[in-house]
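Dear colleague,

Thank you for sharing your sequence with our group. We've completed the structure prediction you requested, and as agreed, I am returning the results in plain text so they can be pasted directly into your records. Please verify that the sequence below matches your submission; if there's any discrepancy, let me know and we will rerun it promptly.
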Amino acid sequence: MDTSVLHVPLHRAIVVVDIEGSTTRTNPARARLRAILFDLLDEAFRAGGIAEGFRDPFVDRGDGALCLVRPVDEAPKTVLLAEVVPALAELLARHNDDRPDEAFRLRVAIHAGEVHYDLHGPYGEDVDLACRLLDAADLRRRLRTADGPLALAVSEAIHWSVVRHDYDGIDRTAFTDAFHVRVGGRRMRGWLRTADWAGAGSPRTGLTA
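Please find the predicted structure tokens below.
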């Protein structure tokens, strides 16, 4: 990162993911799942046409990742919901079928806002909000009751600007449950995708075998 932009807010779409129940795994097992997760994330973003040039390097969160997408015409936020997350669900379901001994599920949260950078990496209130949505008890409960391989929450900003407009590939009726988290003393709303991911995704570029 160019030191000239340190402490200057830069707009990013924010995707955070976390492996369900990772603390119940041994350290070697967690290492394998981490490697698999980063490979699946890269493939899912590429399936939506969001190559490395349109996003920051994934940030390791121990048992998950922080993914930041730059505001370029080639990577609109609609693609995250219509293509990237469905591709991730499909890839993860395929992995779980092929390697049941290393099967896992994910919580996913999406927001967009201003991100700061310093020599240690990205930070800021909007990153905090995305992480609070990811860690919310409501999303954890949603994944526990889900039939599919992942559960998704979006921020109010994403729901208002993207989900409710019914863009191609995005079903607003799938997001029916609102919940709240607190960030910086403020009560912020998120939305759960309550439909499961059976048959999810027809990514733009297709998935590799």
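Summary note from our side: The CA atoms of residues 14 and 111 lie 5 Å apart.

Kind regards,
the structure core
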